[in-house]
Structure formats: structure tokens, C-alpha cells
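> call design_seq(struct)
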């Protein structure tokens, strides 16, 4: 997957538009782009979108970013979408392999209840969104056969570190975030899964996106 596009789950218009974007994968987002009061409606919208598009010829891969384990919202997110058969779950604020194993158990139970083949739903873990997670990037190996990729996040890590910025004046990442990127790459290598770079947040700056790539 060369390109992944985050789309809020509560916007059918944006989801439909994303299908024609040319992205290799669409990440239907139930986490940061959805207000707390809108979570339930977003889950229903995500499930409906997955059911309507799963059989589309030549479609991009369909992933769902759920809310993290500490929020208490992971279970209702999975309850809503696993039966609709996303290709993978994007797992935010993963803190090492133990949390991926925990998520695996949750997905396994819901696949069984929904008649989805065991192991059908893969996992892409966001490996560096908390300070604690940086020290656990080497622990993903063997955590779950569902794990297919690690990626990393600069925005949530910035908030946890109390940073005013995560990039320098030229647009390059500052040292803590270069470290996070390197640890994600090494963790993915150790786990023998794909390494995926972080999101480019200024979606209107196509020249900047090109430079970043």
C-alpha cells in the first residue's frame, strides 16, 4: 500500500468521494475526526459504507481506525464493524505487542460471533503515539498473526510530550519524531511486517506532500 487516505466515518459524502481518490487504501476513521457525541452514528455509517462497497470491483483496501483501548470505546467500535468485514483494523495508541495480542482476542471473538473466517481481519498498529510506546517498539514480533504493518504518529506524541511543534522551519521532523520514525521502522523489521510512514496533515499542500514522499 503506497497511499492511505483517512476519511471521517460520519461523512458518507467524503467516503464516497474517497473511493475515486486513487488511494490504495481508505481508512474509515472512528477516532480523532469524530466528536464524542457522534461516535454511535459514525459506527453505523462506517458499517453501512463497508457493506455497500466491499464487493466493488477494483476497490481500494478498506480499513477502520477504532478508538484506543484506554478510551473504553474499542469494543463498541469492533461490535459495529467486524461483521461488515473491513480488510484491517487500524489500532491507535498501541503500546507494544501485548496490546496487539489483546486486540487480536477481541477481534477473534467478534469474527466467531459474526461468521467471519478466523484471522480474516488484519491489524495495522500505530506504534509511537505515546511516550511509553517508544520503549516497546521491539515487542511486536510474534504478538499476532493478524499484524501486517506498523505505522507511527507525530501528532498525538507531540501532545503527550507537551511540544509546541514537531517540525523545524524547513518542514523536517525534530529529533524526538525522527527517533519515533526510526523505532517504528526497526520494530516493523523485527516483526517482519510492513513499515508505513506517518500521515501528512496539510492535505492542501501537494508540493509539501511530494517533498515528504
Amino acid at each position: 500500500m503506497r497511499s492511505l487516505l483517512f476519511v471521517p466515518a460520519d461523512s458518507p459524502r467524503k467516503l464516497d468521494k474517497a473511493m475515486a481518490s486513487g488511494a490504495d487504501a481508505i481508512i474509515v476513521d472512528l477516532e480523532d475526526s469524530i466528536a464524542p457525541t457522534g461516535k454511535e452514528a459514525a459506527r453505523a455509517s462506517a458499517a453501512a459504507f463497508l457493506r455497500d462497497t466491499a464487493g466493488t470491483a477494483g476497490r481500494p483496501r478498506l480499513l477502520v481506525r477504532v478508538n484506543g483501548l484506554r478510551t473504553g470505546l474499542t469494543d463498541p467500535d469492533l461490535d459495529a464493524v467486524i461483521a461488515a468485514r473491513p480488510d484491517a483494523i487500524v489500532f491507535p495508541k498501541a503500546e507494544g505487542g501485548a496490546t496487539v495480542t489483546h486486540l487480536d482476542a477481541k477481534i477473534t471473538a467478534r469474527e466467531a460471533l459474526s461468521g467471519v473466517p478466523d484471522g480474516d481481519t488484519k491489524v495495522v498498529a500505530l506504534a509511537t503515539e505515546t511516550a511509553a510506546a517508544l520503549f516497546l517498539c521491539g515487542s511486536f514480533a510474534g504478538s499476532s498473526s493478524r499484524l501486517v504493518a506498523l505505522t507511527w504518529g507525530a501528532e498525538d506524541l507531540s501532545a503527550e510530550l507537551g511540544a509546541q511543534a514537531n517540525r523545524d522551519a524547513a518542514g523536517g521532523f525534530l529529533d524526538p519524531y525522527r527517533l519515533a520514525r526510526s523505532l517504528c521502522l526497526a520494530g516493523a523489521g523485527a516483526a517482519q511486517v510492513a513499515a508505513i510512514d506517518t500521515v501528512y496533515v496539510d492535505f492542501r499542500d501537494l508540493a509539501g506532500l511530494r517533498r515528504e514522499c
